[in-house]
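User:
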Amino acid sequence: MVYATAKTLTDKGEVILILRNCAYHGVNRTLHSSGQIEHYQNKVYDGSVKAGGRQVTVTRDGYYTPINIIRGLPCMQMEPNTADEFNKLPHVVLTQGGEWDPSVLDHILTDDEDWVSKVKRKGDPIYKSPFDLRGEHENREPPTIGNTIDSPAGPLNEGPDDIEVNFHKVDATMDIYEAYHQVANLNQIYVYEGEGMPDDESDKHADVLDDDKEDGIEAYPPAETKPKPINCSKHRAQFLHVPIEKIRRTFQATTQNAAHVICGGKIQQTLKSPNPALNTPRRNEGVATDAMFADVAAVDIPGHTCAQMFVGRSSLLADACGMVSTNEFVNTFLDCIRDRGATDKLISDHANYEMLSRVEDTLRALMIGHLKSDPYYQHQNFAGHRWGHIKSNLEWLVAFLAIDPYCWLLALNYVCTVMNPTAERSL
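Assistant: Predicted structure:
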């Protein structure tokens, strides 16, 4: 620790800095302690101007000394002074004399229960996000309570003795599950173990196990994968009775070989950005949207009288979300993003509920563009074009199965679910 002097530049010209109890090692630059300088009632603003700082030291005498940021470190421009300069230039003291004890600045802020009010300032910037800590939009429209429509078939039987089981009736739901199971599991895996193993295979694997047991190695028979052909004509009822060739192309165009999802085992080490746009999967296509309205409320749902359609511009993927009021558009849009991913842009008409501030906040936070067509020109909205095909299939399904009008939303979701994986010539 030495006493030293140096010449530097200030707002009032050149001055002589008086450095008392300064750390001197005689190599390269001299090290200064901002805490030691501020303890002498000087102010050090060593933040970079590019980061909103001031890059200046303000002394108790009113001198402003500039600070340079070099390789991220604050530096003061100083040079050795001569004896003549020491006698002619004004002196500016940065640090006090006597023995310097750094512990005089010690202060444990976490021991103070009221530390928040002491560190915050009125001029501090406040970050306001439309999303909460869980990523949910804080301005979601509260669900509107509508009139629940009972099932046309009447209430379900409560007593187990009153349940009627018809073993000869074909359950369409089970057929759908079977069809999708075969689509997702084209290559089924057969593993023979224990009693289920054929006799000839059991003898062969028993010899392998005996040899491995002698070596102290525990061995298991390998899994055998066998492809199973799909009977396309069997699934016509689940594909709206489209031609068999179209069903065959649908199976060929879909991926059916994903066996598992690879994920890491150290999720605690995952770094997550606070920007919601970086934590949301991207859909990589534009999505067109439009609303359709029904004459009656949907069955078993609290008064849904309309549905918001979301149609992928490239994939033709369609989703129908029921609504009681058009003000719930932002809720359905967020549900679509959660299920499918954030779109590149939203294509809509000039409906007022599609241009609310809550919708704009969501688009801005997730970096989604917004393309609006001209009012009263529905042919400009791609969702209206796709809705024409969905509507024709919906009307055919309602007439073919004699569906009750109150089940319109269930039928609409079924048609969209079937048309989404079905092959299209435009794809």
